[in-house]
Backbone:
């Protein structure tokens, strides 16, 4: 049952995403509710939804200790729904290309650093795309700086994005995530982001992915992962010929 205070903002294959403006505390929240699949046996469907919800909640809790992710408010008693913090920002997929190239590169370098932190904790996101990243401005910026961050002003003034303290990148949607220490899984995670950049931000995707890898170099296993990434990319090119 959908509450009147809830507004559906996204329909995914596995879940519905609601914007709940009340949540009992007069605060805006995001609710992720896994939906029933009629093609699965009821008992199996119930168990799958519970397992995936609990798994995502655990990954978010672990990730919150090392990078910026939405804070979990609660998991429903039936383990089919997660209520979490609403991040008041902009989807990177829709805004990355609006920034000057140098600022895009800084953002992608930070993304690489965040992925390195996740992988060093053996957290695989599973769906690394700029659609699952939210750009958030620092509230301490003055009005003129805010306009620059929004892309409303350019001119000769240096963008406030040149100071990394002025923004954060939140990773969202760990629904396909899992724990793994395997180099292959970490390489595939990076490969997914490479494909996303190529498809969505095609004008400068190669330069941007170089920045991602540069940021990722802070990982303790970066050399092994990048080497494995080359093999993953080779397999992808081979498959595309058939």
Residues:
């Amino acid at each position: 049952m959908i509450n009147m205070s809830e507004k559906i903002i996204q329909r995914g294959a596995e879940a519905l995403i609601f914007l709940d403006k009340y949540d009992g505390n007069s605060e805006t929240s995001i609710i992720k509710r896994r939906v029933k699949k009629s093609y699965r046996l009821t008992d199996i469907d119930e168990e799958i939804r519970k397992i995936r919800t609990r798994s995502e909640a655990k990954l978010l809790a672990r990730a919150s200790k090392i990078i910026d992710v939405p804070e979990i408010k609660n998991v429903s008693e039936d383990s089919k729904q997660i209520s979490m913090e609403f991040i008041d920002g902009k989807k990177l997929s829709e805004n990355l290309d609006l920034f000057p190239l140098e600022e895009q590169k800084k953002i992608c370098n930070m993304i690489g650093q965040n992925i390195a932190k996740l992988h060093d904790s053996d957290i695989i996101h599973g769906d690394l795309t700029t659609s699952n990243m939210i750009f958030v401005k620092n509230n301490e910026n003055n009005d003129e700086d805010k306009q620059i961050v929004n892309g409303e002003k350019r001119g000769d003034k240096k963008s406030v994005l040149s100071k990394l303290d002025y923004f954060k990148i939140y990773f969202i949607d760990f629904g396909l995530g899992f724990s793994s220490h395997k180099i292959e899984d970490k390489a595939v995670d990076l490969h997914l982001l490479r494909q996303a950049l190529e498809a969505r931000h095609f004008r400068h995707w190669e330069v941007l992915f170089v920045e991602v890898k540069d940021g990722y170099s802070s990982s303790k296993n970066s050399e092994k992962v990048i080497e494995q990434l080359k093999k993953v990319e080779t397999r992808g090119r081979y498959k595309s010929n058939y």
